[in-house]
# Entry
Amino acid sequence: WDTEVLKSIEDAKNLAGRSGRGLLPVCDSGEFLGEFRILKEPVELDWLRKACQISAEAHIETMKFVRPGLNERQVQAFLEYQFKSRMSPRVAYSPIVASGASACTLHYVYNDQECRSGDLLLIDAGAEYNYMNGDITRTFPVGGKYSQIQKELYDHVLSVQKEILQMIKPGIPFNSLQTRAVELLTAAMVELKLLKGSVSDLVRNLTYKKYYPHGVSHWLGMDTHDSGLYQVNGESRKLEPSMCFTIEPGLYIPHNDESAPKELRGLGVRIEDDVIVTEKGYENMTALVPKEISDIEKIVGTKT
Ligand code: GLY
Ligand code: MN
Ligand code: MN
# Structure
């Protein structure tokens, strides 16, 4: 289509000589349409809630299903069956089912390795419903119990996720979520002995990107990464009721990172929920999926 559109513009230009008319202004409609999509209508919120509910129920069922020896692909098949059984027509995006060190590959798509006891499993997946999309990540132990170091890493990410969620209310700038997430995650990196130095230096020099190389949030809606500007007139957009987005901090320590404490190498954790901004704060549309360690440990592998 790009070729077709560019060719049409070129053809119109070439007509100018004969018709005497120049080319009419050509604007990118994405910006206008994006504005319509940032604030959701009540009915759109209901469809999005439903997409999130389907996604959440499927994540829960899949947590119960996982056990050592399953292939990531079998886990993916089970998860997608759960989506479709609840009348979701499509996945929101290709599910990420990443066990062990694959969790450190942000958009891991192979989903073809065996899930091993002792490893964590990161599942980032969402269902579509009425053209709206869920986007949930949970990271849980294949064998049902987190090791001590896995717990430590997980607890850091979970407490950052909770703190960022608590910030959400009308009036705060969207980019303050990422700024705070970066500060908190960098402090965690220092505590975990991944980095040395002052948090402010490590943030200023972007050193933190080694273990947290993505954003904490994106608009959510008809696209998983929904359209709409994040800045207006050079300033971060302020949150308003009916905006919908994810909150998804993570920490990822590559398996071959010789500067990291050995026990942390190859661990990756992300926790992602989907929210609507309300008059006073926010609604978490995916709160159904357990994220407390004790709640997760109670259900992993319990499906008979
Ligand atoms: N699964 C894509 C994202 O979380 O942004
Ligand atoms: Mn996301
Ligand atoms: Mn995601």
Notes: The chain has a mean pLDDT of 95.
